[in-house]
Amino acid sequence: MACQSRTKSSSSAIDTVQIVNKILSDRNVTKDLIPMKDTIYIFKTRSVNCNWPIKTGSFNVMYIEPGKKNEDLIDLSPSSFYDKRTKIDFGKFAIRNDSAKVSIGLYKYQNVLIYDFELVRKDNNWAILNTINKTH
Predict the structure, then answer these.
(1) How far apart (Å, rounded) are the C-alpha atoms in residues 33 and 18?
(2) Which domain of life, per UniProt (predicted)?
(3) Rg over CA atoms, the chain
(4) Run of H or E residues at 24
């Protein structure tokens, strides 16, 4: 299958991979992921493309395609709270010059955690400037 990438250049593909890896290895996120299995599931939304990683420092990454076949993985209703798979939804993913804003929802066994990240590029590497946990 060919890559249907929304990434406009190889440099923005590199940026995307660096940002995703940085977020998935952020201590605020990993403290919530550590007790879980070694595989996390990411909902495949418009911002997800073939440049996204299949492995981070600590986790294998699987992508959940929308559709009938994956209904049980996509289900976030209270009845799905017995599903122990960790699922991540990248909501907002905006890169502008040397800054980025990313929002994620982390769905794990009976918990929903929401994070907003502000990142900056310094010396061709992305760093997290600010993390806000919006979980109530």
Answers:
(1) 19
(2) Bacteria
(3) 15
(4) helix 10-24
C-alpha span between 16 and 95 (Å, rounded): 8
pLDDT in tens, 91-130: 889 999 999 999 998 877 667 889 999 999 999 899 999 9
pLDDT tens-digit readout, 44-85: 877 777 778 888 777 888 888 776 555 555 555 555 556 667
Write the CA distances from 75 to 49, 91, 108, integer angstroms.
Answer: 22, 16, 12
Collapse the DSSP code of 132 into the 3-class scheme (helix H, G, I; strand E, B; otherwise coil) and give the result.
strand
Six-digit token string for 40: 């996390």
3-state secondary structure of 111: strand
Residue type, 91: G
